[in-house]
Amino acid sequence: MRLGPQPGEEIDRERSFTFRWNGADVQAYEGDTIVSALAASGRRVFSRSYKYHRPRGLLTASYHDPGCFFQVGDEPNVRGAHRLAEPGLDVRSQNTWPSLEFDVKAVNQLVGRFLGPGFYYKTFIKPQRLWPLYEQVLQRFVHAGHVSADTPRVAVDKRHAHPDVLVAGGGPAGLAAAVAAAQAGARVMLIEEEHRLGGHLRWGDATDLAALAELRDLVAATPGIEVHVNAVVSGRYDGNWTAVVLRDLPSGLPGGTRVEQLIKARAKVLVVAPGLIERPYVFAGNDVPGVMLSTAVRRLIRLHAVKPGERAVVLAANADGDAAVADLRQAGVEVARVLDARAGQDILRVRGRKGVQAVQAADGTTTECDLLVTATGWTAPASLLSMAGDRPAYDPRAARFFPSSLPEDVLATGGLAGDGSLDQLIAHAQATGREAARRAARLRREWQAAVPTRGHANGALLAGHRLAGHGLADHKLADDPLLADDGPVAIPELPVDEHPELFRARTHGIVDYCEDVSSKDLIAAVREGYDSIELAKRYTTATMGPTQGKIELVNAIATVAEATGRTIAETGTTTWRPPYAPVTLGALAGRPLEPVRYSPMQPWHEAHHASPLIAGAWIRPDHYGDPAAEVRNVRSKVGIIDVTPIGKLDLRGPDVPRLLNLVYVNKWSKLDIGRVRYGVMCTEDGVVFDDGVTGRLGPEHYLMSTTSSGASAVWEWLENVLQTMHPDWQVHITPVTTAYASINVAGPAARDLIGRVTRGVDLANEAFGYMEVRTGQVAGVDESVLWRIGFTGELSYELHVPAAYGLHVWETLMDRGRDLGVAPFGVEAQRILRLEKGHLIVGQDTDGLTRGFSAGLDWAIKLDKADFLGKPELAWQHDVENGSGSRLVGLQPEDGSLVPPEASQIVDGPRIVGRVTSSRMSPTLGRSICLAQVEAALAAPGTRVTVRLPGGRLVGARVTEHLAHVDPEGSRLRV
Amino acid sequence: MILIRCPWCGPRDAGEFHYSGEARPRPDPASASPLQWREYLYFPANPRGEVTETWYHRMGCRQFFALERDTDTNESRLPGGPR
Amino acid sequence: MPGRNTVEAVRPASRPRPRRPAKYSALALLRHGLSGRDWPRAWPENPLRGRYDVVIVGGGVHGLATAYYLAVNHGITDVAVLDQGYIGGGGSGRSTAILRSNYLTPEGVRFYDRSMQLYRTLAADLDYNVMFSRRGHLTLAHNDSSLRTMRWRAEVNQLEGVDSQLIDPAEIKRLVPFLDVSADTRYPILGALYHPPGGIIRHDAVVWGYARAAAAQGVHIHQDTEVTGIDVAQGRVRGVRTTRGDIAAPVVLNATAGWSTLIAAMAGVRLPIQTFPLQAAVTEPVRPFLHSVVVSGTLHVYVSQTDRGELVFGASVDPFAAYSTRGTLEFAEGLATHVIELMPGLSKMRLLRQWSGLCDMTPDFSPIMGGTEVEGFYVDVGWGTYGFKAGPVSGEAMARCIADGRAPEIIEAFGLSRFGAGELVGEKGAAAVGH
Asked: Which residues of A touch B78 (CB under 8 A)?
């Protein structure tokens, strides 16, 4: 029933609309939550509980209200006592069948006594084959909404913020702290979970409302405060990295679906002012619809002008309970009885199933009523503090937890810190705000001082040293006059009021409403040996539901304490973890931002129907329709391939040869200008990690190539060597992978084609031989690099031209080579070509443990070098493994038409003795060819091995003489 | 995201860096026995508390530097510097 | 470094076996429900004795399973399991509890499959429903190299008699309708390794089941008992010192995770381990829609849905070593990004809680099991991100190792001495986002 206008009400009676609740229309005003509108319509039952399907109503009328989770459209688990009603919303109760009113699973209540905590651990053990069936039954009870695969994804950009002071909580303390901090010069961000600022002042009396108005105006008038309501600080991580989630933002999609936005705030100082959360009382019938907390009835009456019931009984243990009595009377609710817990009065049980019908007090009297209001205590929402490393301490005198040891960058104020009058709380908050601003300013100065490459206020610019720390050791920030301020702000202590410890009446009731766990369950769990708060939690699942302990943890601790005979302090708590309130995956994901890399020739590839291959971050042409034809064209005429993703590093300096000697397994001291050499890199344990060719372009100028996927790792590796092992070497590295577009021109007609487009380079074989490098002008582009290497086994020139000209050079080649039969070839054709030549691919023909010798790189590894990375292990491997370990070999299946899939295993009876690492049909030979890793004993040429095809069929194959299947002498390369 | 103090760029988000492992003395590969070498390769100190390690400012100045970090609290400082 | 330790003092107890606790069954539920009687304690509280034949440091699944198999397979019951907090409070309580045996090497497959075998009958063996749910386990491949590795694993699995096969996107979609298998995604799914026997289990129940069954045999379980020192003299272990008193013991097993380096150091033993946090998260419950366990190595994420309806997520270890169990925002962000990429319909699901456990990473993604250079001091450590699934087989093998004084064949390859010998095991390909 709707009351007359209330001072401070937050509904707009001019704006009325309807929404649907389980198919029926419900009237609401703007400013109503879904639940306040439902309550105004006289409804009381909003859900059914998890295990027993007991009818549930509203308890707290706040975000955490456990009986008020609804499906709204395609959004599950919406907090109905927080979400504002909107026109046309389709709201449904969750997991009720056939209806909320008559729910079949409520039959569970009848068997409740048999379904004690952890009952499922004690049963359905045998017969095991029925477990899947039982699981299906269990799953039917999942008390939640549903998701759909078709839910459209709305990408909401995340935001970064750098507030000096982040205030979590917009009640009187938070507001006062925010204003004080801003007035002290701090940039402030104020986050309030509810839809409006004000905290408990919003449903307070006239004085409270006046104070609220004043504070709100002050916040609005003070510059430097960014305010967000309906937002929550969901996590505080190391370094005061905080997650702020803005809720219920419009998505722009039809149907009014709402989205959340994540703000990542590096707060210098966090002020935690979340107020206190009212705690339910545990007694028989404490979950019957019509049992409400004092804050719930005050909200309903004051904010939404809803009459919560007709005839009430109130159990009051504090002043808020008294205030609730006054509000109820003022709203025309008959307060039939007030039980004062401070005078020792208590309730025993509530009678009624779908709604409160009567309350039996501990003195034996029974009072008929339809509403029971409890005000039995407060719980400190200590989550953010715990995330900051605090271990809150329990004060039995006040019956709640308090912060005990906060880090420098976190402060607590408001109810979390103590009690007192509104003025006292505000004074504490103001001092806290000023202190927060002071600490933030100090931190800002310290961070700025920690950037030595910026000018200092004292004029000194610190030179960067390698492996530093040196510069700053002289600069003791603690003594820095720059950082001095007026000293810490004195924060007045807040009084702490006594409060009776009231957790459970003499009867048993629900402790965790979401998980349907009663005090009886917890005590039974303790008796069974699950006698610490952690074990009791896990065994009963208390606090493991959507409220994550906020309204039930302290009662759970108290119950476990009672059962074990320990105090609450001795029992301790479970751990508060982020997020403080649930955050949508969409908000955490934001907009997908995974970059993709294309070469400058990509438009040409697309226009010519290249089939794309995703190679890490790169998109490359896999083939242009017929890879076999591409292979044949390369072997007989000339093909061009876009190899831009090849890693490229420009190396300059007098010590480059020493670096190459150290990182490659072969010798590099004498590489003449104009020559190119193939190199293999191993890590310090001898495992092959990359390969490529390096050419010498000038006296102190080299160009190194790496695998495409290894490009950044190799660059980092080289920098590591130079900076940490040999800072005395003079080598400068510039990554040029994307600075150059790279094109490999391969085939018997390659020289002809290159000759047509190149100036300034003598291309005759005697002048420019295999494994040599030149620079010249290609297609009019100066400073182009050409080197002759042989991955494909044909005469080939690899061009590296400044990337902006890549497409131009490519098109020129295609144009000028038309009569030579030039055609593009892709990665697939290249794989076939290199396999025909027996060239290994690191990571495919080798794996994470392949050491140099197993990769068939014996010829490359020069153990007589002084030192190279990987040498010790390779030397020892060489000694040990002459006869053991595995080897890379060429393999040809006896049936040349059979192409064993890569990773097919090579077997000897039941034993695995190797595997096929690369495998293709060779267009050149017209038969299948492979590379394989086999046990050393089987590596001799001519050995017959057995390959197991997927599916089980066994076929024979022979180890070839050479790794190369085509032109093993490599004569075609050297023409 | 913790802050890492780069000696040249100041405190930056850890995501800009690449963790390069504990800073441990490298034995002379020429004279180290297999056991000594493998102890270097495979046996880190792994303390719970302060450790000196190497970080690489991958998305910044691209320098390798030494950092002292508490593996429990993730607070860190440059050797000899403030936290 | 020896794997041989003769431990003369470990003999089967000659004391009579204590009474077993009441059997669990539906009938028992009925009886207790009708009579209102309490269930007896799952494991009794015992005074801490000054001496035991075997002291196991670590009350997680590995330590408790070892204690159980020592008693049941070898008659060794004078055993104490010590935990610094509540049992299962370390890795076992933080694990996302995915069970599978689709590993890369034949030795790895045999090892983890033995564990699967034990898990399949565990509920009946322990008389405790551990709720092993066989869901089917999918490891998605998003590029050629990955597909090749999946095939490698499928082939090795089949040769070892384990059910795994490579399946295509259409088949994947049939199993997991919520997955986006189209070619439009950033990293299209090319195929998957499908392992039907894989699934999930209630991790706490496994810990409690082993604890209850071990205690029934006379094993003492001591919680809130932190080991502060290990006494070694003349190259042999003599006992441990704890916050509740000293215990003499000729055999001490380090079955910890996160603390293993520190515990081993107390005995003067060095381990090739670096400790990294491994984070996980859970969402609010929704109606069941995901019946398989889905893993993507490329996207560094895996997901399953519990019987309570919550989605459980995990990814790879944190990028730098730490002993923090606090969790990071960037983990939650990365996770959400990749999960939505795989299953775009999930953007409205809400993350409820994130946590992390400590993973002891070894250079070759394989554990360290067996003896050490200190006689009587054994280790079952280095379990990285794959420890929970190996609980039963590790317990069985370590029990045998302790009883026989030498490592059984199934764990020979995992000896500590392999690092000094340069003989690392090859599971990197199967363990990278190993879950």
From this structure: 468-469, 472
